[in-house]
Amino acid sequence: MLWPMLALSLAFCGIAVLALCAARVYAETRRLSRQVAESSRRISRAAEDLERATAPLGSQVDALRGSGRPAPAATDRD
């Protein structure tokens, strides 16, 4: 009777250890998803800032095109 009880107690301990590992994985996954969401918000905010910063440059390019000067090609590098 000792061996079956020992086997059951070891099986229970094994399942308890697996449950603790699963809980840690769940907690870390939630933490990672929050970090990904925050990074996504930061990237979106940076993209909006970049769009706002390039608006004056776009109007300058439009003014240059309106004055009859051709816009520089993407391959023209100094």
Largest sheet geometry: none
Overall body shape: rod-shaped
Mean pLDDT: 87
Structural class: mainly alpha
The beta-strand count equals 0
Instruction: Identify the quaternary structure here.
Output: single chain
Low-confidence sequence ranges:
none
Radius of gyration: 31 Å
Order of helices and strands: H
Helix percent band:
over 70%
- Termini separation comes to 88 Å
Count of discrete alpha- or pi-helical segments spanning 4 or more residues: 1
Q: Give the DSSP E fraction (strand runs of 2 or more residues).
A: under 5%
Region (Disordered): 47-78
Organism: Streptomyces coffeae
Protein name: DUF948 domain-containing protein
Keywords:
DUF948 domain-containing protein; rod-shaped; mainly alpha
List the helices and strands and how they pair.
Blueprint: H1 2-66
Question: Mind explaining what this structure looks like?
Answer:
- With 78 residues, the protein is an all-alpha fold.
- It has a domain at 14-63.
- It contains 1 helix and no strands.
- It has one helix at 2-66.
- The protein is rod-shaped and about 100 Å long.
- It starts with a helix and ends in a 12-residue tail after the last helix.
- The mean pLDDT is 87.
- Residues 47-78 are annotated as: Disordered.
- This is DUF948 domain-containing protein.
- It comes from Streptomyces coffeae.
